[in-house]
Each structure stands twice: as structure tokens, then as C-alpha cells.
User: Which sequence fits this backbone?
């Protein structure tokens, strides 16, 4: 949840660390702080509650000499232990001010550690679990910071990424991790540690993932990685090919607006290169033999939030094309109900970040039950990708805004491709049919571009209704998961009560919410069920609802019942989520902006949720 950066090299550590934090701020923005080992050999710690801007202001008031140095660490926080105030902001220091620590995660034995420290005479000045680590390192330090960190890590329960510096070790930053991500950036005469690669891709594209229970010693001229006993471990270096510009706003006011516009390209990239010279769809990432695919008896899709909604669309695609039963589960519920899994079960774990703790635990549970786990992730080297049997990487590029847009779009594409591949291998669809569906899918980037070009009336509408405190979303078939997605986007960005329902269900209760002027967004792309949906729209309109209908070009069946009409181009109904999702993203973004809200960093949220 928190973002962490560590740097040692030849550049101004403050500039590098602040640049990295700016790119990691999406991970949490309750407070931020830095510790710089300055040229006089002291550690300067500056930290402030609130967004990075508050820290920047505090740094401007600090004597530049105190901040001038080439080694530093930084943190941007999503609060777990302790309120989001200055006192609880990281870095935390020990009693002597020699040790500075930043931490992502939660320590389960924190109360016990803290009591022990206080008993031994330490004074802890924050409410955080992290501060205990600084004092434990103080106790264990005997001239070797890495040794002290290893010793402390052996005592910690829970999940953590720690990045630590010591005043007396001018060339060393130490990092350690358990259950949460930490990546090394390998430069020339400089090295980096960060929660994800976006923090350092402006400086280097060579990276290495730190594995479970490993400790990294970062120096200007090299990096060593050991296990918790101090034995060296090997790891794989990888090259990051993300475009640096993709992690910048490029003139947009918000990352979210830029990411919405990047969707046609993200879809194109994710679809690209899938048909081989024999005209067969390739999904080598699944890494299952045809025989194993033919032996599958069920598919279970797990994910959280928007990823879960993508999974719900995946169920339609896989069941329709591959005739395999599919269950879709909210990842945080999955392992607690003892699901029935076996080696003939394919579990698809969808996660943009690849770090969501609930989804990661679902993956671990599924693998323990010997199911085959396919991760669908946007983040190379992420924990979920590494712990799964196989990974389908969506090629959306970095997604910085907390509200997921282009990542969801590419997850939908991944679901369609998995569905078509399973259908092809299991023989439920012949080559011509698979190719025809694939062709339809390949046309969607152009259709998404077309939808994006039609969005001005939606922006106007959003501003007009931005005073509403409740908005409902209705859909049927694949429109239902998209109704859930539209509602999630609006509630997370605009803080209004927004709910999605299957349109046929509202008469069983939710219709009681309708009163004069209640805004209801109805997803009504052309489908065999459109006539039934028309009846549902009439029911709510008769009770005073203002109906905002998303309908296919040329379909007049719903027009008489729409107060506001949003048109999308025609496509196969199964693929319609790729188009209906766009107006809902724009509606939510514009609605929230009209209320003066920051759509990249909605309150109380973080981009990747690494606590259960
Ligand atoms: O990184 P993940 O895909 O695992 O994240 C899952 C959810 O936390 C995420 O989709 C969340 O619901 C978004 N903020 C929705 O916009």
C-alpha cells in the first residue's frame, strides 16, 4: 500500500527520491517523508502528513545543506497503524537518530515488540508498528547494518518491505521483504530500491526482483542479496520496456484522463501477435498442454474490485465459447469458504498490480489444492505473477490513477482471449468461428476510439447531474458486471452512493430507491435481452427516475424511454463491455471533477491493496 524508494549513487538523493515518490504516490498519500544522509554525515529526516505537496513545502523551508547528499530513502504512506499525521509519517528513527526506516506492510507481533522495547528503556514517539523496527535495529547494530536487519527480520511476524539507512554507513542502503514487493534498479555507479519499477525507470531499465525473506545491500558500485541467514542468493535480472512517458501526465490534468485515452492502444497491444501462421489463436502464456486443457472440469476466476468485474465478463465468454462451468469469486472470500478445487480446475487470478494481498492469498490457496493457476496481471515480476503457474501479462503500460481504466479494459480482452483459446483447444468452436470472434475483437480498438470521440455530451451531462447523491446502474447479461463497474468508478471517485444491479432484479427490492429525479444509468447495448431491459426502464421511469441510457447506434427500441441517450457503435453483444465501460469512466471522472475532487487520488484509497 505504501510506496518506498531507496537510492545510493552520485546524483542528489533528494531529487531522485522525491522523483520516485511522485511516481509511487498512487500507492498511498496519507503522508510522505524522506531521510537524506547529508554531506556532513548526519541523517536529515523530513516528513509531513498529507500528500507529497506538503512534504515539498516542508523541504523548501529546510536548510539545503542539510538535504544535500547522495544517499537517501523515502516513503509515501497509506496508514495502517496510527492516524495519518506528522508524528506517524515515515521515516522513523531510533533513540539516537542514527537509524532511519521506511516500511510497507503490517507487523502482527507489533504490540509485543513495542512492549519489550519500552521495557528495555526505548522511547517510542509514534503509534506505528514501523518505529519498533528502528529501535530493534538500534539494539542489534554492531557495525553491520545488513546483519542487524537480518536479525530483526527473523523476529518479525506479518508482511513487510523495509528500507533502512544508518548514519555510520555512508554508502549503504539495506532493504528486506516478506510478502510485499521490492524491486532493485541496477544503474551505473548508482542503484535503487523501490516498491515498483516506475520509481526508477527514468534512471535505469535494468531491474531485479527481491524474493521472499531476502535482504538486499545496496551500494553505489554494486548490490548483494542474501537470505535471512546471510547466505548469498541468485536472482534474475530483467529489462523494463515501459515507456517513461507512460508514467508521466503528458499534458493531461490527471493520469486517469490520460489512461482512459490510452485504452485503444492498450487493447491493441494486448491482442497483438495472437494468430500464428496456421491461423490458430495462440495463448502460449497459459502453459498448459492441450490434453490438460481438454481435461479441465471447471474454471474459477478470482479478483477484487474492478478485476472481479472483469472476471464476471470472463464467465460469460468462457461459458459461451468453451462450454466450461465458470465460478467467479471475490478473492477476499475465496479461501475462507473451502472451495472445491483439484488438478482439473483452472484458477484465473486477475490483478492489475499483481500485489493485491487478497488475490495473492487466493492464488496460494489454489496452488496448495493443486489447481493450475493462471495470473492475469499488468505488472511484470509481481508477486501474483511469480507465485502462479503461468502468467498472461496484459500490455496496458503503467496505470497510475487509483481508479482502474485501461487495466480493466485489457483484463476484459484477456478474458475473451482465454475464452477463445479454451474453446479452440477443447474443440467447441472450429477455427473459422474462433477467427471470426478474434476479428471482431481486433476491431474493438477502433470502436473504443470512436466512443472516446463522442464523449463531450457525456461530460456535459456529468456536470449537470454532479449534485446528485445517489446514482444507480442497471444492466443485464454482460451489462450487469459493467453496471457494477460503473457504480464502483462513481463511488470511488465522487464519494456518492452508487450501486449496480441486474436490471431484472430491481423489482425485487432496489426499485424502492427510485424517487423523482433519481439518476439511473442503463446499459442497453443491442442484445437478445434488450426488449426485457426496455420493460425494466419503463418501470423505473414510471416512478420518476431520470434514465441515462447507453444504447447501440441505430437501435430505437430504448430511445423513447431515455431521458439522456449515449450512443455506442455496434459490436457483438458479448464484446459490448469494451465500449459501454468508456462513457461510465468519463461520467465518473467528470462528475467527480465537477465536485472539485482529485480523481487520481480519491480519499482513503490506494492503488495496490497489500493488506488483507
Ligand atoms: O491491482 P488489482 O487489480 O488487484 O486491484 C484490485 C482492486 O483493488 C482495484 O481494481 C480497485 O477496485 C480499483 N480502484 C477500481 O478502480
Assistant:
Amino acid at each position: 500500500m505504501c510506496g518506498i524508494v531507496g537510492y545510493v549513487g552520485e546524483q542528489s538523493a533528494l531529487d531522485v527520491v522525491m522523483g520516485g515518490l511522485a511516481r509511487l504516490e498512487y500507492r498511498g498519500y496519507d503522508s510522505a517523508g524522506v531521510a537524506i544522509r547529508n554531506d556532513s554525515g548526519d541523517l536529515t529526516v523530513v516528513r509531513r502528513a498529507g500528500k507529497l505537496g506538503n512534504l515539498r513545502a516542508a523541504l523548501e523551508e529546510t536548510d539545503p545543506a542539510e538535504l544535500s547528499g547522495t544517499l537517501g530513502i523515502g516513503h509515501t504512506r497509506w496508514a495502517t497503524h496510527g492516524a495519518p499525521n506528522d508524528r506517524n509519517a515515515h521515516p522513523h528513527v531510533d533513540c539516537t537518530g542514527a537509524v532511519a526506516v521506511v516500511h510497507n506492510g503490517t507487523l502482527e507481533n507489533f504490540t509485543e515488540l513495542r512492549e519489550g522495547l519500552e521495557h528495555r528503556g526505548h522511547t517510542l514517539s509514534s503509534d506505528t508498528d514501523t518505529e519498533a523496527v528502528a529501535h530493534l535495529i538500534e539494539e542489534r547494530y554492531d557495525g553491520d547494518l545488513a546483519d542487524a536487519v537480518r536479525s530483526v527480520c527473523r523476529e518479525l511476524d506479518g508482511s513487510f518491505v523495509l528500507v533502512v539507512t544508518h548514519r555510520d554507513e555512508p554508502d549503504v542502503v539495506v532493504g528486506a521483504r516478506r510478502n510485499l514487493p521490492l524491486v532493485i534498479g541496477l544503474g551505473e555507479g548508482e542503484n535503487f530500491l523501490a516498491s515498483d519499477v516506475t520509481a526508477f525507470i527514468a534512471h535505469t531499465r535494468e531491474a531485479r526482483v527481491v524474493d521472499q525473506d531476502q535482504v538486499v545491500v545496496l551500494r553505489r558500485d554494486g548490490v548483494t542479496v542474501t537470505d535471512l541467514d546471510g547466505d548469498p542468493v541468485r536472482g534474475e535480472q530483467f529489462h523494463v520496456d515501459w515507456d517513461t512517458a507512460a508514467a508521466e501526465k503528458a499534458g493531461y490534468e490527471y493520469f486517469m484522463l490520460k489512461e482512459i485515452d490510452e485504452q485503444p492502444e492498450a487493447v491493441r497491444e494486448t491482442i497483438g501477435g495472437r494468430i500464428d501462421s496456421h491461423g490458430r489463436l495462440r495463448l502460449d502464456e497459459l502453459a498448459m498442454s492441450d490434453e490438460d486443457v481438454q481435461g479441465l472440469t471447471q474454471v474459477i476466476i478470482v479478483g477484487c474490485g474492478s478485476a472481479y468485474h472483469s472476471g464476471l465478463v470472463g464467465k460469460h465468454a468462457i461459458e459461451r465459447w468453451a462450454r466450461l462451468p465458470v465460478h467467479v469469486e471475490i478473492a477476499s472470500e475465496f479461501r475462507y469458504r473451502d472451495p472445491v478445487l483439484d488438478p482439473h480446475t483452472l484458477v484465473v487470478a486477475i490483478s492489475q498490480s499483481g500485489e493485491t494481498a487478497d488475490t495473492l492469498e487466493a492464488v496460494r490457496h489454489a496452488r496448495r489444492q493443486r489447481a493450475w493457476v493462471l495470473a492475469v496481471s499488468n505488472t511484470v515480476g509481481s508477486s501474483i505473477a511469480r507465485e502462479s503457474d503461468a502468467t498472461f501479462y496484459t500490455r496496458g503500460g503503467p496505470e497510475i490513477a487509483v481508479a482502474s481504466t485501461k487495466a480493466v479494459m485489457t483484463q476484459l480482452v484477456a478474458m475473451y482471449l482465454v475464452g477463445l483459446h479454451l474453446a479452440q483447444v477443447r474443440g467447441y468452436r472450429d477455427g473459422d468461428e474462433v477467427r471470426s470472434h478474434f476479428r471482431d475483437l481486433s476491431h474493438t480498438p477502433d470502436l473504443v476510439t470512436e466512443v472516446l470521440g463522442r464523449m463531450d455530451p457525456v461530460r456535459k451531462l456529468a456536470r449537470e447531474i454532479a449534485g446528485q447523491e445517489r446514482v444507480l446502474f442497471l444492466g443485464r447479461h454482460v451489462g450487469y458486471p459493467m453496471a457494477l463497474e460503473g457504480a464502483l468508478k462513481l463511488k470511488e471517485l465522487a464519494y456518492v452512493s452508487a450501486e449496480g444491479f441486474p436490471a431484472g432484479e430491481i423489482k425485487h427490492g432496489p426499485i424502492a430507491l427510485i424517487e423523482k429525479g433519481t439518476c439511473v444509468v442503463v446499459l442497453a447495448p443491442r442484445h437478445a435481452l434488450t426488449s426485457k431491459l426496455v420493460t425494466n426502464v419503463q418501470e423505473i421511469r414510471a416512478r420518476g427516475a431520470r434514465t441515462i441510457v447507453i444504447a447501440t447506434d441505430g437501435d430505437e427500441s430504448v430511445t423513447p424511454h431515455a431521458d439522456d441517450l449515449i450512443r455506442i457503435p455496434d459490436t457483438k453483444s458479448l464484446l459490448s463491455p469494451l465500449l459501454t465501460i468508456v462513457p461510465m469512466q468519463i461520467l465518473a471522472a467528470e462528475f467527480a471533477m465537477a465536485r472539485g475532487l482529485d480523481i487520481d487520488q480519491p480519499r482513503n484509497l490506494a492503488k495496490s491493496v497489500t493488506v488483507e
